[in-house]
Design brief:
single chain; 301 residues; alpha/beta; 9-stranded mixed sheet; 4-stranded mixed sheet; 8 helices; 24% strand; globular
């Protein structure tokens, strides 16, 4: 099972509610997903961009130690990207970015089970055009595409423009996972069912909405389930959505469901199984400091 993840890698500087710097860790949603997949025993390959500098060395070591195969790391002439994750009193993170995203041109590798894209990698140039080309190649080859917009208002400052972009990417994806933060920014005042319907009507076969402690909604055109969140003592939520995404992809692969001819026909039982497993992966991440996704052994699997 081989999954190519394409998108930004960066260093997360975590800042507490009191303004004190707590930690500096590897981050970036696509990097987190790639690491999460590898730790769940998926053959995970990452196309990203970082520099040959101090922060880049941290990323390279983290990628290697987690068992991710690095397809490429372009943009070496620019500093490694940095995100400041500022925690509020509820340990919820908001972000500020210094981002450079140019992975260089590459063709889609052969023998992939899935391509995952999302976050800043799909909205920041010039790398967004590389991602768009790889998605088009995946569609032509029948490779399933998973997408997590992971919208950052600090970067996508116009919500209407961002929503139009999400719809375009969703039209090229088989699986779309969004968060309640995405929903609140992109479609304020709209119901969760409205948002799921919009993703399905755009072209996704499976739409997922994570809602933190309020659980998860998973929907196809013919089945829809709500799953409660597992109990967890939250340390922080950094990387939790990325861990859910890695868990969702892994669960779909484990059950041989991540196929373009199968996703739209998932039953309520299958949606429940993959949703609960992904939520368990995210819960472990919430119990740890920073984006530190679990290994498969941590789940007793």
């Amino acid at each position: 099972m081989a999954v190519l993840v394409v998108g930004e890698s960066l260093v997360d500087v975590v800042v507490g509610a009191d303004g004190e710097e707590i930690d500096t860790r590897p981050g970036g949603a696509p990097l987190n997903v790639a690491v999460g997949l590898a730790r769940l025993d998926v053959d995970s390959c990452l196309l990203t961009a970082f520099a040959d500098d101090e922060h880049g060395a941290v990323l390279a070591r983290h990628i290697r130690d987690s068992g991710v195969r690095l397809l490429g790391a372009g943009s070496s002439t620019q500093p490694t990207s940095v995100a400041r994750a500022v925690l509020d009193a509820r340990q919820h993170a908001t972000y500020e970015f210094a981002l450079h995203w140019d992975p260089g041109r590459v063709d889609l590798p052969a023998d992939l089970d899935a391509l995952h894209v999302g976050s800043l990698g799909t909205v920041v140039g010039p790398g967004d055009q590389v991602v768009r080309s790889l998605v088009a190649q995946a569609r032509a080859a029948g490779v399933p595409v998973t997408y997590d917009p992971n919208v950052r208002p600090a970067v996508s400052t116009d919500a209407a423009v961002a929503w139009a972009g999400v719809r375009r990417w969703a039209a090229a994806a088989d699986v779309v996972k969004m968060s309640d933060d995405d929903a609140a920014y992109l479609r304020p005042g709209r119901s969760v069912d409205d948002l799921l319907d919009a993703m399905l009507s755009a072209g996704a076969a499976l739409a997922v909405l994570t809602q933190g402690a309020d659980g998860t909604l998973l929907a196809t055109a013919t089945a829809r389930v709500h799953r409660p969140a597992p109990p967890v003592d939250v340390v922080d939520t950094v990387g939790a959505g990325d861990s859910f995404m890695a868990g969702l992809i892994t669960a779909l692969l484990d059950h041989d469901l991540l196929r373009t001819d199968r996703l739209a026909r998932l039953s309520e039982r299958e949606l429940t199984e993959v949703g609960d497993w992904a939520a368990g992966v995210a819960a472990i991440t919430c119990s740890r400091r920073g984006a530190d996704p679990p290994w498969r052994a941590d789940l007793g699997a």
